[in-house]
Amino acid sequence: MEASQAQQAVPVKPDVLFLPLRVAILTNFIPPYLLPVLRRLASQVADLHIFVSTEMEADRFWKLDWDGLQVTIQKTMTTTVRRRHPIGYSVPGYLHFSYDTIPLLSRYKPNVVISSQLGPRTMQSFLYCKMSQDARLITWADLSEQSECGTGKARSAIRRILLQSSDAILVNGSSGARYVERLGARAKVVFRVPFVRDMNGLSSLPATREGAVNRRLLYVGQLIERKGIHLFLAALARWKHRHPQRSSECWIVGEGPLHHDLERSARSQNLDVKFLGFMPFDDIFRIYGSAGIFVFPTLEDTWGVVVNEAMAAGLPVLGSRFSQAVEELVEDGVNGWSFRPDQPEEMDVTLERALNTSEAALQQMRVAARSRVAHLTPEFAANRMLEAIAAASQC
Fold this sequence. Notes:
single chain, alpha/beta, Rossmann fold, 2 domains, 7-stranded parallel β-sheet, 14 helices, 15 strands, 36% helix, 21% strand, disordered N terminus
């Protein structure tokens, strides 16, 4: 199946809804939004086993829930890292080296190995598949062109080998597909599997918003430099300076090292910003229903599942083009507005447009937003993964 088919607005169902295969997935940890996808996939193959480097990374506040899944924690050495992006922001994170990958796979004997990222984990998976006569390799490339800016020549050379040796490749969207294809991946083995969310609760929220809620801005995410929320609040302060008689309320859900600086800055500039702190997924539902426009000013996101959530809740998205979710889902003036967060003038113009949009137009945009993401269900993502598994197993 050609990669471009993944962009259709309806799920592409595979010819086979069950594959009698043993499948291993290797990844850092399991985020909550991925759990329904993996449970669905587990019901579509003979056996699914997930190998993780850690239960949960320290900067994540998500609840652990592996019910219904077979999960093994690998022997792992972890170190903190900080990457400096070429356009100037800093990205903290963790580097996991799980050193028992080959022994674990040798005992499990999978038909298909799905390995996330393009580092030591996938290199070990590649070596295992080379040693095994039956195993096929699927590389899960959770990346975008923006996230990979500044990648060195040596690292790119290793990635080129892994991608060209993969029997199938999973990417989140168009940007990821362009990146891997530039490194020699065959387009016909690239499958687009966006991050999705079980949106039943969100899609049942009323589509209408009344009064001040119509233009209440909402941000959900970590309070870190990469997410660009500091740049957005600076743009909101400039808007307030241009329109001193108007008010614009912004709610912020999330925690992170920038919290106190952001709160102090908002207070000093007399911005109407409400910091709500961290909230579990289930509690965020009601917050989506209490806002009118979703804000996602990220400097780098390989997808951004909060964009799915917001649109399912009927919120137009004022979002960064450095998010693949915004690139794939937001149509300017139809269900949201897009901008480059590293261009202050462009952000100012786009924020002005959003806050000047009429209530009638906002209502139309809410309906369009909800319609655009209706197909992005756990079943859709699991079926896309199943197609990739089927294609890889036939190589």
